[in-house]
Structures are given as C-alpha cells and as structure tokens.
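Hi support team,

I submitted a single chain yesterday and got back a structure, but I'm not sure I'm reading the token output correctly. Could someone confirm the output below corresponds to the sequence I sent? I've pasted both exactly as they appear in my results page.

Thanks,
R.
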Amino acid sequence: MRYSDFAVFVLMAGFYVAGTAAIGRIEIAGLFIKPGEIVSPLIALFGVPALLGFLFGQFMTNSASPFGPMDLLTTIFALAGLLAIYLMRRQSVLLGALIYAVLTGIWTAYLISTVTGALLSEALMAAVGGQLITVIAGYLVYSWLRRLEPFRPIHAQSIEQHHYSEYERR
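Hi R., thanks for writing in. Yes, this is the structure output for that exact sequence:
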C-alpha cells in the first residue's frame, strides 16, 4: 500500500466520522442529512482507498448508533452503493451516486421503521429524500474538484501522444 493510498483512506474515514458523529444530522426542509455522506461521490475520484476509508468511518460511527447493532449492517448496503459509484465512474458518477442514495435510503427507512415503529412509507420518503440531497451536494463538490488542475481528466489523444513520444525517445 502506498502512503498516498493510506492518506486517502484516513482522510475519507475522518471526513465521514467528523461529518456524521461530530456534526450530526442537519435538517433541511424536514429531511435529515448526514454531512459525512457528502463525500460519497468522491469515491469516483479517489478510488478504492477512499471507498474502504468511507466504509471504515461509517462502521466506526455506526458502532455507537442509537439504532443499536442493527445499524452495523448499514455498511453492507453502503458497500453496494459505493461500488455502483466506483464502477460507474467513467460513465456517470451522478447515476452511481443516485443508486447509492436509493440503496442506503431504503435500508435506513427500514431501520428507522423497525427500531422506532414509524410508518415505513414516511420513513422511506424521509430517508431517501435526505440521501438524495446529500449525494447531490456531494456531486456538486465532485464536479468542482474535477475542474481543478490535479483532477482534470486526461484525454485519450494526449495519452496516445505521450506514449508515442516515449517510444520515439527509446
């Protein structure tokens, strides 16, 4: 493992823990968002170390959840959604993030309904709505970062030119 990969892992875990445990849930138009989940679309930018760091941070945070040990299963649903973001990073990061929001929102609604006794339909609207707001905010952060110099995509033509010029030098 490279130091940069470990740094990404630690930063992503830290962002999740700080955004979720330290800041807590924020209410927007009657929907609750977890600020730590805003970084989920950044999995497309930083790859597997970020995915693993996010999951580690989520597992640590959920180990002290008011929903009890059942909330530890959230990491499984998050993994499925984060894999959607990671695997779709070349086609549509937004679509992958929306898949993440729906998967984790459905699980969270079930969790809320089971633990608190709330109606599943109300919990579903609140959980999926909150997750959608969160990943859209995260996608805006992702889009902004993609415009910065170190994160701009390299075009295929410039890659071919680079390989060709390397070949000529030999």
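A quick pointer for reading it: Confidence is low (pLDDT under 50) at residues 155-167. Let us know if anything else looks off.

Best,
Support desk
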